[in-house]
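Q: I'm building a small set of examples for a reading group on sequence design. Run inverse folding on the following structure and report the sequence directly after it, with nothing in between.
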């Protein structure tokens, strides 16, 4: 069973190796919302996976955006990872647009927010403006044929139509399989 943690632990070191980056600034859009087992299995607790990995790379930082980042803040503080993490409370599109205006940049951006194809597409376009190249964009729930999962329904057809290079990896929940977008932009 592959989790988002497994994918983060594989993709980020490979990206660092290929780009020779020794530290990463990561933006996670949609952070850990609940520490219980059901959410760990369903969502993946990616915030903890990022923070644990970044701790090993001096100078790295995790920036999270969420309507309510309170649970993520508690989770990283409980593990002594809080000093690596900054959380912004607010709507993803508004916070990301503000970050663009403030000329913030990130090496890795993970989109895992609203279950809406159009919102995810708009987050992706903002992510392109926030990415420090070479950069890595990742996104959860990119299935285009899942009854309830809608995040990738606009973005994945758009990337195909544009002829953009990307990969989809699978993570498993106890109930189904989710497609994870992996796009390295040089
Ligand atoms: C699927 S969860 C993220 C799970 C997390 N990445 C993990 O692996 O544990 C989605 C999160 O997006 C947040 N969210 C939903 N819509 C949002 C919006 N418009 N702006 C900011 N955050 C939003 C929710 O509050 C929730 O915490």
């Amino acid at each position: 069973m592959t989790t988002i943690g497994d994918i983060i632990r594989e993709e980020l070191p490979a990206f660092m190796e290929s780009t020779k980056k020794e530290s990463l600034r990561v933006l996670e859009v949609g952070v850990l919302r609940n520490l219980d087992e059901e959410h760990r299995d369903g969502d993946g607790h990616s915030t903890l996976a990022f923070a644990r990995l970044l701790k090993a790379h001096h100078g790295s930082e995790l920036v999270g955006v969420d309507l309510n980042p309170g649970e993520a803040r508690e989770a990283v503080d409980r593990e002594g990872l809080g000093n690596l993490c900054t959380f912004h409370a607010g709507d993803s599109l508004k916070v990301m647009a503000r970050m663009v205006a403030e000329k913030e940049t990130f090496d890795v951006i993970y989109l895992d927010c609203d279950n809406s194809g159009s919102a995810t597409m708009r987050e992706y376009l903002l992510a392109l403006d926030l990415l420090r190249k070479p950069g890595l964009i990742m996104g959860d729930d990119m299935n285009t044929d899942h009854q309830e999962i809608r995040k990738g329904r606009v973005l994945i057809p758009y990337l195909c139509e544009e002829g953009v290079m990307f990969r989809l990896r699978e993570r498993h929940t106890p109930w189904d399989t989710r497609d994870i977008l992996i796009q390295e932009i040089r």
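The chain is about 40% helix and 25% strand.
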